[in-house]
Design brief:
Helix content is 40%, strand content 23%. It contains five helices and seven strands. The protein has helices at residues 13-31, 44-53, 67-71, 80-88, 127-139, and strands spanning 2-6, 35-40, 59-62, 75-77, 97-99, 102-106, 112-117. The longest helix has 19 residues, at 13-31. It has 141 residues and is of the alpha/beta class. The strands form two sheets. Strands 3-2-1-6-7 form a five-stranded mixed sheet. A two-stranded antiparallel ribbon has the order 4-5.
Length: 141
């Protein structure tokens, strides 16, 4: 089972806070059978920097082409002026798109059992809520 965490990128301070907080519950999620998989549109090189800077011990993958975000229905196209500002700041984005920060809990059969999506990128799922959802999925087996 997996806890898929889609985030905007290592350049986003709210994402980095969320990634760090997830470390606090990684062991508890593992005990319930869930592995954390964080996914962003960052390049593999940028992911390495984020993984090192945040001292992450869980899996981090690049969705540079936004394929996963599109398939999960959380990709959105940025306004051209905003995308231009990001590009000038050195943030490389395909199709001027980002994922809405989201959490998906997927069971062993590959079925999505829990979804949390918040269009306000400053708001993230709290650790206790994620643990509660994971426990409910585990206990329903």
């Amino acid at each position: 089972a997996s806890a898929l965490i889609l985030y905007r990128g290592g350049w986003c301070p709210y994402c980095n806070i969320h990634l760090k907080k997830l470390k606090e519950i990684e062991a508890a999620l593992k005990d319930m059978g869930f592995q954390i998989i964080a996914i962003s549109p960052d390049t593999p090189e940028k992911l390495g920097e984020t993984r090192t800077e945040q001292e992450l011990t869980y899996a981090v993958y690049s969705d540079f082409n936004m394929d996963v975000a599109k398939q999960l229905g959380v990709a959105y196209k940025m306004a051209p002026d905003k995308a231009e500002r990001y590009a000038q700041g050195g943030i490389e984005l395909v199709e001027q798109s980002l994922p809405v920060p989201s959490v998906f809990l997927v069971d062993e059969d590959g079925i999505i059992r829990f979804v949390h999506v918040d269009a306000n990128y400053k708001q993230r799922l709290k650790n206790d809520e994620l643990l509660k959802a994971a426990k409910a999925i585990r206990d329903s087996k």
